[in-house]
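Re: [help] complex structure
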Amino acid sequence: MLDILVSQVANGLVLGFIYVLIAVGLSITFGLLGVINFAHGAFFALGAYVGWQLFQLFGWPAVILAPPIVGLIGMAVEVTIIRRLYGKEPLLSLIVTFALALLIEAIIRYVWGADGKPFNPPAFLAGIVEIGPLLITKYRVAVLVATSATLVALWAFLAWTPYGRILRAGSRDPEMVDLLGINLPRVLTAVFGLGCALAAIAGVLAAPLWTVSPSMAANAVMPAFVVVAIGGLGSLRGAVVAGLAVGVVTSLTIQFKPEAAAASMYALMFAIMLLRPRGLFGERWERFE
Amino acid sequence: MTRHNRSVISRRSVLAGSAGFAVITGAGLTASAQETGPVRIGLIYSKQGPGASIGEYLQRGSELAVEQAGGKVLGRPIELIWLDEPNPQVSQQNMQRLIDENKVVAIVGGNYSSSALAMMSVAAREKIPLILPGAAASEITGKNCNRYTFRTQATVPVQMRGLMPYVAELGKKVYFLTPSYAFGQDILRSSRALLKEVGLIEVGVDEVPLNTADYSSYILKIRQARPDVIIGGLVGGDFSNFLKQWNEMGMKDRIPYAAVAVTDTDFWDVGPQASTGIYIKPWYYNNPKNTETEKKMISDFQKKYNQPPSDKTWSGWIAMRALLECIEATKSTDAKAIVTQLEKWKNTDGEQSFFFRDWDHQMVRPAVIVRVKKQITDKWDYFDFIKNTSGTEEETQNAFGTKEEIGCTMPSL
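Output below.
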């Protein structure tokens, strides 16, 4: 019994890392822009499709271009649509981004068709790693490594670089940042683009695992919201802890009562929300109180 | 004042008279519009979500049947209205919309047993014929049956009975991996009854919620239980995800997988690398025993879409074909006439005739048993056809069960 438990917990942590990567972009978008981006899952799917298309045209190395491309698309969306949502009530951003999500899914279906696209891990990452009771596929280990690298890079960017400081300041006190002569709108556009690029990285990494189909957005957006709610809006640390928690809880529920597996993350969210409504590491946002 | 009253009365009576005239002529116009306007038929198939590619092929099949009929029935143009099948509640609402707003004469649709059960109640209440091309759960033509609903796909018990001998060849220990809704529960019920007959034992069961993306934890459990064979029932995108991850975790060649009610797109979406298993499905395009009309349908589809049709296309096609043929035969779009005619409808070209059984409206027709090819070289041809689930018409009738076993009692029209 211990064997399988260890195995499931390890598997849950790996699954959790994927959830963390999906959620982190959403957390940043909300934390720095104050916009609830329901289209986050759609950018995740877009990342997977653009990655698939680049792979079809140019082979594996080209896939790395998918996140920047989706980031640019995100920036265009920010300039045209998202910009108008700043400072407005959260419900509006939820409705508009929900509509955007449906639109992007419909565009994906129109361009690439409703069929799934076969997409397998690269040959050098095929196979499994077995250490005692632990069984992880080589590809998932690679996802683990890539996700960790991304998270570290993101944290370093926000904590140490001048741009990161500007982003964090801009979310707390936009007027002051503006008075300091920094072009805030451009900064916000870049932040939204960053959030979308992060979603796209998750999409590219998840594509060989989950079928590449227009509905894959749904598999990403709900866990993302649950993770962000549990971890606290705007908290990177919270997204990591919550993502791993959701992954482990899901795996263990599958072990003991699979029918409840899909609901388990919501039960966890419910419990955390009752005990700590802001989420585990959530911060106070004056604009919402 | 009196003069004023008289003119008001007379104006009123003129208005009343002209209103009455308009109503009479309007009613007359509507009546003639009903006999000469288009015949509207509703389609309820998934347009988005994990069932989207299934819905697309179903719609193509139904559309092809209409095209093959020259786009007309009873000399009137056919208008197809396609609404979504995202979940039972919305499917039910869409069906109501088709009846109230679009004034359809009949509906073809319902791929998921859960939606089908919801839609059937609308069919019975509104007295509109409904032909289900998918939805294999037994209750549909069993204890929940109604006079206005027909179904083309073979029931779960029939499919499981066809699969069991092959499962028995693969080993003794069985692990179940089924979806957590009516269809999956039906698989468990039917299989468990058959397991004892063929001498197999159950070593584990997982009922998976619909729309599960990640199966790694389930695969770990299966590995732990060390079965000889898995009996599955995952549907559409969920099944594709599972196959992908099953292969990724190195299990593809270790434990064989057998399932019912799968469709070609489940495998086309995953690719040859991950495809494996032995399956029951309604129809296969590369089956040498296909009838002449089916072969024509395949070539028409191939011309239009540059690829062969999936079995869902056949299902959408045969349901629409039966409906159109019955409307023509009965020379009317009246619901009761269509229902009575469908109960008499029979397809006679081919080795075995098939038809809708009149006491439960189940299409009595064998399913096909196929196995994924060892080497897949053609982009679309993934399967070897093994045989039909029953060889003669008598065997087929027996496979579908007696009236007592099925438990369907239908009221008069």
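The CA atoms of residues 366 and 389 of chain B lie 5 Å apart.
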